Amino acid sequence: MRLPKSDGTLADYALTGTPLIPRAPHVPLTRTAFAAAHVISDPLRERDPWIGRPAVDWDATLAFRHTLWDQGLGLAEAMDTAQRGMGVDWLTARELITRTMTEARAHPLKPRVACGAGTDHVPLAELRSLDAIRAAYETQMAAIEAAGGQLILMATRALPAINADADGYLKLYGQLLDQAKEPVVLHWLGDAFDAALGGYWGSSDVATATETVLELINAHVGKVDGIKISLLDQAHEEAFRKRLPAGVRLYTGDDFNYAALIEGDGAHYSHALLGIFAAIAPAASRALEALAMEDLDRYHALLSPTVPLSREIFRAPTQFYKAGIAFLSWLNGTQKHFIMPAGFQSTRPIAHYAEIFRLADQAGLLARPDLAQNRMTTLLALHGID
Predict the structure, then answer these.
(1) Rounded CA gap, 270 and 259, in Å?
(2) Distance between CA atoms of 119 and 143, rounded to whole angstroms?
(3) What's the rounded Cα separation, in Å, for the pair 370 and 56?
(4) What is the pTM of this model?
């Protein structure tokens, strides 16, 4: 087949990869790994894809989560990978959380599920004070705890919008942590993922923001399970995790450098809360198994080929990475179409999808090569390429 390249030319490509067969790990894992999963649309019920609530194919969405659990991975539910604030509203997210928790309780592996609590059910214009922002968080926290999910306190656009200072962050998050029933995961999402989150923790200087969030964690150690950091800065994450109090995890959200960060430096390592793990689950699961067995050669042999794929999926503008996650789901037959809430599939060009196809093949992540090639050919034809 002929695939487009970023320079506008076409090049011949033949499939070469050997698909990894999904399976459960054979040994207990030594790293906690949450895969952040996407939402699968129901195109037949979609009416106004750019406005209103999205139509969700619940059977396919939940079945996709089962594939992750079957491979020994935990789930980060209703996060930015699920298009929170980018096509998926809170009412849909709440239903997703409720349905997912019911399925998780029935799953034989009893997987861990952590769910994103934010403020996105309230218009930004109405979140003009710390009290209003706290009340919005509390609404979503209560719904998640009632469903039985672990809390992830998602970064909110409302705090940068009111130019909250460090003291404001410490006060607000302290109040939220105090009332949480169980230890929560904090969430530091960089502006590469969402430009509206610039200056989070009260400063645009990362070193200053780091001191604020560490002060928060140290003041509430018993209520903090860990913190997910998605700044795409390996050196910062390595320095940050050294300063965490005992028992508080660093969950890497670095979709560029996760292989080295999860392996660690011999003294410290990161756990995982990653959107890319939903796309590379067979490789991620087997690599974590190899790490647990202290087989570093096998660990790197499995994960190293996935890094170029992840860097392509998460390339700038990074916030559009969800399209690549859904695209691979379609290629692999876990959904019947390549339609996303709010028409999000249109955020990336055809050359990007062609490169994902190449890299996924080379990483052994096209589960059904014939189906993947057929679907890639269909997408090419829609773009006038034959």
Answers:
(1) 10
(2) 12
(3) 27
(4) 0.96
| Cβ proximity of 147 and 115 under 8 Å | yes
* Buried/exposed code over 331-341 (b: 16+ C-beta within 10 A; e: otherwise): bbebbebbbbb
Pairing of strands 184-189, 150-153: parallel
Query: Which two structure tokens, joined as six digits, stand for 252?
Result: 């890497």
Cα distances (Å, whole numbers) of residue 228 to 9, 177, 196, 240, 359:
39, 16, 18, 11, 27
CA dist 324 and 59 (Å) reads: 21
Q: What is the pLDDT of residues 313-346, one digit of tens each?
A: 999 999 999 999 999 999 999 999 999 999 999 9
Amino acid letter, residue 176: L
Report the mean per-residue pLDDT for the chain.
97
On whether the CB atoms of residues 42 and 337 are closer than 8 A, the answer is no
40 with 58: CB under 8 angstroms? no
Residue keyed to tokens 């209703």: 78
The type of residue at 325 is I
φ/ψ (deg, to 5) at 349: -85, 165
Strands 33-36 and 224-230: unpaired
Q: Output helix, strand, coil percentages for the chain, rounded to the nearest 5.
A: 50, 10, 40
117 falls in which pLDDT band (50, 70, 90)?
A: very high
How many Å separate Cα 250 from the centre of its chain?
A: 15
Pair 81, 114: CB distance under 8 Å: no
Closest among 217, 213, 189 to 202, alpha carbons compared: 213
Place of tokens 């699920």: 82
Write out the two tokens for 127: 């979140």
| Nearest-angstrom CA–CA distance, 90 and 298 | 41
User: Which residue is it, tokens 């790293």?
Assistant: 31
Eight-class DSSP state of 142: H
Nearest 5°: the CA angle 170, 83, 333 is 140
Continuous H helices in the chain: 58-70, 90-106, 130-147, 158-161, 166-179, 206-219, 234-242, 258-263, 276-279, 281-292, 296-303, 306-313, 322-331, 350-362, 369-382
Sign of the alpha-carbon torsion through 99, 342, 126, 215: positive
Q: How is residue 140 written in tokens?
A: 């979503």
Q: How far apart are CA 237 and CA 303, in angstroms?
A: 19
Provide the pLDDT confidence category of residue 47 given band limits of 50, 70 and 90.
confident
